[in-house]
Design a protein that fits this description.
This protein is of the alpha/beta class and 322 residues long. It has twelve helices and 14 strands. The protein has helices at 7-11, 53-60, 83-86, 104-113, 119-132, 148-160, 178-193, 205-211, 229-234, 251-258, 283-293, 308-316, and strands at 15-24, 27-37, 42-46, 68-73, 76-77, 89-92, 166-170, 197-201, 214-219, 222-227, 238-245, 263-268, 272-278, 301-304. The longest helix is centred in the middle third of the chain and has 16 residues, at 178-193. This is ABC transporter ATP-binding protein.
Length: 322
């Protein structure tokens, strides 16, 4: 990562996007979009398909032109010719982008060469990247010989070998095995601990909640919510989900449960009762009181707090995987 910075530089956000507008004909892809990523954080950027995420990232990287607005990276305006800024940025795309005719080591060396021209300067960087993603035993393999998880690790190594200060990870764990997913997430946390600022997009809410310090939800090219996972959960009505195993729930009891002040819905399939509640302090006690007073026999009972997926669904009206 880059060397010493004075306090004024440290106060500058790693990334600041102001009132970005991007149109495709009559369609507004980004509608005065704002984004502020602090130095040293892992920032989650979420949105349903078509929300403008990819367009925003491509505009930030100066891969797309835009109608109006500004993009500043480490306090300086980003333009297509800001090559010194671009050297400080790493991108790990959703689609694996490597050369099948090159070995693992050759691929990493090639992508590193786009930022570090002298081969002597790259040698240690390439070896560090290979070690970092755990591909030491596969360094002479061609990509076609790698499993999906190892291929994803190669994709990451190619994006971070030049040791960038700001790294964009776009769906880096799609279709990988759990072991590789854990290795990738741990690697991102390690990069962050070394000083890198990370912008992370994913369809897996549990990953976002695990590694991101703050999360933005966007839709229709605009920011609709921003905060920590807990702050986002506090912005919506969705509360806990209570699930009860029972074989003798009466229709009258189900009607009582649906009439509870904070019950959003109550559904019963003959074996399992699922109640979605709005936020409240004693939803579980209220449910138990109805079951006890009606003499309902029940077995296993669970109460799950609201998830990021609940927040996303309430704010956008869509599942993240839509």
């Amino acid at each position: 990562m880059s060397g010493d910075m004075n306090s004024q530089q440290m106060d500058e956000p790693a990334l600041k996007v102001s009132k970005l507008v991007k149109r495709y004909g009559d369609m507004v892809a980004l509608d005065h979009f704002d984004l502020d990523v602090r130095r040293g954080e892992v920032f989650g950027l979420l949105g349903p398909n078509g929300s403008g995420k990819s367009t925003a990232i491509n505009c930030i990287l100066s891969l797309l032109s835009f109608e109006s607005g500004t993009v500043r990276i480490f306090g300086r305006e980003m333009t297509p010719s800001s090559y010194d800024l671009k050297r400080r940025i790493g991108v790990v795309p959703q689609n694996v982008a490597v050369f099948n005719e090159l070995s693992v080591r050759e691929n990493i060396d090639y992508f590193c060469s786009l930022y570090v021209p002298r081969k002597a300067d790259r040698k240690d960087l390439v070896e560090q990247a290979i070690d970092f993603v755990g591909l030491g035993d596969f360094s002479s393999f061609r990509p076609g010989k790698l499993s999906g998880g190892l291929l994803r690790r190669l994709n990451i190594a190619c994006g971070i070998a030049h040791q960038p200060d700001l790294i964009f990870f776009d769906e880096p764990t799609v279709a990988v095995d759990p072991q590789s997913r854990n290795a990738i997430l741990e690697g991102i946390e390690h990069l962050n601990a070394q000083g890198a600022t990370v912008v992370y997009t994913s369809h897996y809410m549990e990953e976002v909640e695990q590694i991101c310090t703050r999360i933005m939800i966007m839709d229709h090219g605009r920011r609709i919510a921003l905060g920590t996972a807990e702050e986002l959960k506090g912005m919506v009505e969705a509360g806990e989900q209570v699930t009860v195993e029972t074989l003798d729930l009466q229709d009258s009891t189900l009607a009582q449960l649906r009439a509870l002040p904070l019950a959003q819905s109550a559904d019963y399939d003959g074996k399992e009762l699922v109640i979605h509640c709005r936020q409240g302090d004693h939803n579980l006690q209220d449910v138990l009181a109805v079951l006890e007073s009606s003499g309902t026999n029940y077995g296993h009972l669970t109460s799950r707090p609201p998830s990021l997926n609940d927040v996303f669904l309430e704010l956008t009206g869509k599942e993240l995987r839509d």
